[in-house]
Amino acid sequence: MSAETLTPAKRQSASMRTVRALLASRETAIVVVILLIIAVATSFNQSFLFTGQGWRDLLLTPSILMVMAVGSAVVIITRNVDLSVGSTLAITAYMTGRLFVDVPGMPIFIVVLLGILVGAGLGLINGALVAFGKVPALVVTLGTMYIYRGVVLTWAGSDRINASDMPGNFLNLGTMQILSIPLLTIVAVLVLIVAGYWLSSTRSGREMYAIGSDPEAAKLYGLPTTKRVITAFILGGALAGLAGVMYAARYGTVSSGAGMGWEFDAIGAAVIGGVAIFGGSGSVWGAAFGAILLMTINRTLPIVGIPDFWQRAVVGALIIGAIVLDRYLSVRRHRKLQEARDKA
Amino acid sequence: MRTTTHKRSIPALAVFAVGALALTSCGGDSAEGDSGESDSGGEALSVTFLPKNLGNPYFETSNAGGEEAVEEFGGTYSEVGPQEATPDGQVEYINTAAQQGEDALVLSANDPSAICGALNEARDVDVAVVTFDSDTDAECRDLFVNQATAEGIASAQVELVAEQIDGEGEIAILSASANATNQNLWIELMEEELAADYPDIEIVDTVYGDDDDQRSFDQTAALLQTHPDLDAIVSPTTVGIAAAARYISDSDYAGEVAVTGLGTPNQMREYVEDGTVEAFALWNPEDLGYLAAFAARAVASGDIAGEEGDTFEAGRLGEYTVGADGEVVLGEPFVFDSENIGDFDF
Asked: For residue B222, which of A293, A315, A308, A185 has the smallest C-alpha distance?
């Protein structure tokens, strides 16, 4: 993405440009790293890839974080951030269980819909505070992160949703496979494709980048910045809400601590995937690959014999590495552009 | 709502305290006598419960027992706690309890020594400090109410796992956090007992799920991936065992890999009924909180000093004696299986 937008618009054939962009893109680099990790893990342990269970876990484990990372990427692209998505996930995950307990016979698709709607509503609160209150998103969502978590703590209190509280056919969705691909992974990929298309190929999607690159200029240019920023937060919230329902189906147990710290995983995934933390560049594809990379590394480290304790450190190193790489690339690009200008 | 339903099951839970029921209503009578002892001025003894973290069903159950006991002896009960089970999260609540002049603080420690300074400051202003479930260093508290002896818990789990895998095979342990006091002690004792009595059982790995559903779940997946010949997972923590059972119940490992350890009946019901889990153990957390409250009362009212050999009454549970290092032991762990799990609701 970044390479495409920053190369001076020379007259190249469209297909050649696409191939060059693809090769130079951050997304490709991450996919290569993911494939390398899978190869290493599989060489240590065949069952990592070549058993039904290994294949399923490989696809299933990152799917929930992928959905959240897509939402976070959209918000970050508009030069905002949403720290409350982990708490939003907890609210909708607990609500999912509660609905099944309190309303016996509740249709599953209504529960999914409600999860998304409630998430969108919580996102709307964030978006409205940021857009109308002119308060930095970091502060607003730090506040709502605690408030939403407080809501779950108060609501759930002593209670915990156990697997026996939820209907079997809902729990089955968490592990069901269609042509060996887990349903949750299919959901995550569908979300990714739709969000990816919207951001890259529609007017409102491209405006997200414009707003993130330079909010003032976007405003002067007459873009509906308030509306777009609120949309980004609603989308981030709705996806966190969907992730909450997926969480309940996958893990079968929901306590008030569900999704604690996931906001950072989601932001980390986006940053590793090349979404610039100051907005304006990156793609949801990168964020989704970042999520896969994070979760796959976590699963690989124990297999290659690296102790548990190092896993977080590795995640931290990845994030810093990604940012250093970004910085290096942007400095180099800047210099090249300058040279090109001086020659002319 | 589940917190209120457990009252129905008290008769069933009485297996933990055979014969103690006759004493049920005696505790409340002497509460008036305490007023003169308490130097913070209130007539009613104020007792604050500080669990490792809020929203943890285990502590909600134990604190419900504590509340029941406090009401029984006519004190005032309150509950505070951090969202996450960290030592620094507990310190501020300890300080607040001391500043507010609470008569007694009943807590489960997130770290054996990190909260010691705060606890001793509280004790300097005459707050009786009783730990339960997870202890601090002995010099930082007045009494420790132990759910069962560490040896009893370790051997209950060793017996469960040995029985389920016929005395031989590879097992792994899924624990809470890496610095959890009691889990580490139990694991150490289990290792010793396995080495001594079951030479054919090998512990191939110990991993930490941090008492987080999702992390414990993913750790279970990693364990099974890393050790293809694993026969059983032992999880000495309620969150871990439920996560392990959930993962295994709908994986290819169902029926191949046994899961046992310490769990609560409500969390494990599904997996005992579908056959993933044969049997698991636990004490009764409600009785534990109940006993801790009475122990706090005995110290705060000046009835006992917390020395070895001191005895005190604990309502429906009967009389308890303080052991070495100010330790009071609740009793032996209890084994839950498909036969009896229906009798419990906590």
From this structure: A308
From the list B310, B305, B307, B298, the residue with the least C-alpha distance to B34 is: B298
**CATH assignment of A26-338?**
1.10.3470
Strand partners, B46: B76
ipTM of the complex as predicted? 0.75
What does DSSP assign to residue A161? B
Q: Does A42 touch chain B (CB under 8 A)?
A: no
Residues in chain A with CB shorter than 8 Å from the CB of B217 are 251
Candidates A162, A247, A264, A294: best to mutate against B (most CBs of B within 10 A) is A162
| Contact assignment for A257 to B53 by CB distance below 8 Å | yes
Mean pLDDT by 10 residues, chain A (344 residues): 47 69 74 89 82 85 94 94 95 93 89 95 95 91 94 82 86 86 94 94 92 89 91 96 94 87 92 87 92 88 75 81 79 83 79
**Domain B150-282 -> CATH class:** alpha beta
Query: Is the Cβ–Cβ distance between A90 and A149 less than 8 Å?
Result: yes
CB contact under 8 A, A251 and B213: yes
Is any Cβ of chain B less than 8 angstroms from the Cβ of A214? no
CATH tag, B2-147+284-332: 3.40.50.2300
Phi, psi of A162 (to 5 degrees): -100, 160
CB A205 within 8 A of CB A44: no
Dump pLDDT digits (tens) for B111-158.
888 899 999 999 999 999 999 988 898 889 999 998 888 888 899 999
